[in-house]
Please model this.
Amino acid sequence: MRLIKNRRALWALVLMALSPAVGALTLEELAVRMERLEKKVEAYEKRYGPLDEAEPPVREPARVAATVGAAPSGSKGGLVLEDVESIDRLYNSGDTTYPGNNWWDRTAFGGYGEMHLNLVSGGDNQIDFHRWVLFLNHRFNDSITLYSELELEHSLSGDGKNGEVELEQAYLDFAFGKGLHAKAGLFLLPVGILNETHEPNTFFGVERNPIEKEMIPTTWWEGGLALSQSLENGLSWDLAVHSGLNVPTTGNNAYRIRSGRQKVSNAPANEPAATARVRYTGIPGVDVSVFGNYQNDITQGAGTEANSAIMVGAAANIQRGGFGLRGLIAGWNIDGNTVAAMGRDQQWGFYLEPSYTLPLGDSSKVGFFGRWNWYEYARGEVDQYDAGVNFWPVDNVVFKADYSRIIPDGGNAEDVFNLGVGYSF
Model:
């Protein structure tokens, strides 16, 4: 691939490409086009390095979608492949038409998968291909994009089978400029660390941590409308109005948050919910956020009384060289006499996860972690201690091994040894 090595020469070619239409453009329209092209150049340079480099690095097509650019939250980065290839066509083929006129130029796909082996002390061992996921994204024009995600859980679905086929994302994203986006459809809620980014190569441990699993509850998606904006100072905000949880009110899972996920499947919509988040990523390697969710009745009117509920939380994901630290705290407060009498009106938990990662060569690396989890939820109070190792032969493929010591309050401790393999693309 021949690269243009000088930014001035690059912009000269861009202006030449635009020249047939410049006469029909106002200055404002031209400025908008130039801003779009500047963003494409920035995405290009993030992947290949500065255009002034004498010897640009070799392109690696298989990793473009996973490593380049910044797409909207929860989008899985599907537009990046199109942006980079559009630049290639415009700058290297001599094509003077605006890139992306064909549908295949505006469609991208990706996915991830993971298999787990759980070895339980005094219990039944289990192997499971936990998730197989396919992303399919399509850009209709410069401002409207479809993001979708289809997932098969536990390998088989159907009557009497362990798994299910799920539509985890299917929303239209509308870009308004200056970092402002709107969503309409089915989307992942902007809460916690893993809820929007949970590909297996992006976190430590074979299984997802129990705090985000029970308190968030990851993976949590709803149907509705959302607004978000990323500012130049590193701050961003999200606000969404959407369908709500529908927790059971009887049985062992009564008022268990995770059991209330409806997954937008012919779901009762008597009581909507709202979610908000403020996030800061202005310092390299630092990602901190606060978030909350409110629902007027978490039982969708099915209980003997209205149970309004509010969840608040904070998260930090910090990486300094090889040292990493993740931490999260989140909790629910549920109103109502019945839930209070059951002792399930307040449910919360936290975890701390230090880690260290070191390179093993040009593309492989190994990382070690420890994690302390404490949580109190509908099934009681639990202490859990995890430790393990991740090995990445390349960035998007991972092998994992970890050990967990799970200590329920008033119950017998359980030891679990986990092995896993995962990928994303």
